[in-house]
Amino acid sequence: MQSQLSFHLPxxxxxxxxxxxxxxxxxxxWEMVTDPARWPAGKLALVGPPxxxxxxxxxxxxxxxxxxxxxxARLAPLPDLPPDGTLMVVExxxxxxxxxxxxxxxxHNHLAATGGRLMMTAQVPPRDWPITLNDLATRVQAAFVLxxxxxxxALLFGLLLKHFADRQLRPPPELIPWLSGxxxxxxxxxxxxxxxxxxxxxxxxxxLTLPFAREVLEG
Length: 219
Prior knowledge:
Layout: H1 27-33, E1 43-47, H2 54-64, E2 68-71, E3 87-91, H3 98-114, E4 117-122, H4 134-140, E5 144-147, H5 153-166, H6 175-180, H7 187-204, H8 210-218
Parallel strand pairs: 1-4, 1-5, 2-3, 3-4
GO molecular function, one term: DNA replication origin binding
Protein name: Chromosomal replication initiator DnaA
Domain Hda lid: 160-217
């Protein structure tokens, strides 16, 4: 029998401050990121693996602190520098292009001279970013590096709830504890497990149950 063809669209990801789950493992990180006045020399390098919440934290700053957010891959010569004291977030420094390095250099210097703040996000620390402009490399490598920790048990539980909610799924009460006890302690593992369950349930027309989850994830 031919399997059912399904077209799956990911759920709308909730990225407000109220949707950021806190636990002992990430409370200090939250306090530092959301208080730009504490950033040493006014700049921060937020480093974490895929799906660890870097973009979520950028959107929290955008909404709560009026930050301007731009992907590193889109940096280009700026017709005008931002107003004095601006809070800027440059996302995914791994995607920085050669032609974006000089604009970032001028942006960095402008923010430093006018009391602005700069947060840069990436999967790896600044020394491993694709930067060939020596003056820029020196400046970004002086940023305070804040690493996103792997989730503890409490945060893992919360992340599972969030990922199911983002996909408008209602897992049975016993499923979350079962997943918490079996998944690798990482943000990516949670995202991948929930995505697999969602896709399989849709493709097979099945309800989300513990036996079904066992079949999908352990079968």
